[in-house]
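Ticket #4471: structure output looks truncated?

Reporter: J.K.
Steps to reproduce: submitted the chain below (104 residues) through the standard prediction queue, then opened the result file.
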Amino acid sequence: WVYEETYRAVLDPPWVWRAMTGYLFRFLDTGALRVGPVVQAVGVPARRFAIWRAGILARMRLAHNVELRGTFVPVIYSRDKLGAAGADQFQLGIRYLWAYSPDR
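Returned output as attached by the reporter:
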């Protein structure tokens, strides 16, 4: 078994899957602030279990091509006890968009 940093899970290669769903609600007159819930599942077929995570995503448009992004998605259920290494907790980032839609 190996800890895979992209999925933040202990895997038994070669197969793994990840699915995420959520919804962002628009705030402010321009819709520049978006916040919403998210649920994520990571499946490890060889180990016969899935990791469940749930939390909040936030996006704030600073300019037409610059976005501030925040993620808090802790583990809800997992057999592994990885703590913060097993979740997308407190990630902050800046996203520069090369192309964009003006009505977005």
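Triage note (M.O.): checked the attachment and the full token line is present. The mean pLDDT is 87.
Status: closed, working as intended.
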